[in-house]
Specification:
With 124 residues, the protein is mainly alpha-helical. The chain is 66% helix and 0% strand. The chain folds into two domains: 80 residues, Orthogonal Bundle (Helix Hairpins); 27 residues, no CATH class. Helix 2 runs antiparallel to helix 4.
């Protein structure tokens, strides 16, 4: 494989992935449904790495496990970026909008240090 500059931004990574897909004529298979299903399969492969770990084991990772988990996270990210591309969604804008919504649902004074769902204190 020839030396290809490594993307250092989300936009550059998205462009590299799009080019990779176009070269292989895979756009025909990349429907939102197919991409969502593929992303969930990859996310399940991330979970599989932690399935029987204790909480301590899950945070104490060897370099080999980090690499393996990193591959699965990368697969998940690639599919996430493809779904956003196919659906015309700006992930940065969507994430920023969602953080604003979450800040309203989880105000600091009620949510700080708590893992409760917002519905536990929503009407208080």
């Amino acid at each position: 494989m020839p030396d290809v500059p490594q993307p250092d931004s989300l936009d550059q990574l998205r462009a590299r992935i799009n080019h990779f897909v176009q070269e292989r004529d895979w756009e025909q298979f990349h429907t939102p449904k197919n991409l969502a299903m593929a992303m969930i399969v990859e996310a399940a492969e991330v979970v599989e790495h932690f399935q029987w770990d204790s909480p301590q084991e899950s945070i104490t990772l060897s370099e080999e496990r980090k690499t393996e988990i990193g591959h699965e996270l990368a697969d998940t990210l690639v599919y996430l970026l493809r779904i956003a591309e196919v659906c015309g969604i700006d992930l940065i804008a969507a994430a920023n909008a969602k953080i604003v919504l979450n800040a309203k649902k989880y105000p600091v004074e009620k949510a700080k240090g708590s893992n409760a769902k917002y519905t536990a204190y929503q009407d208080q």
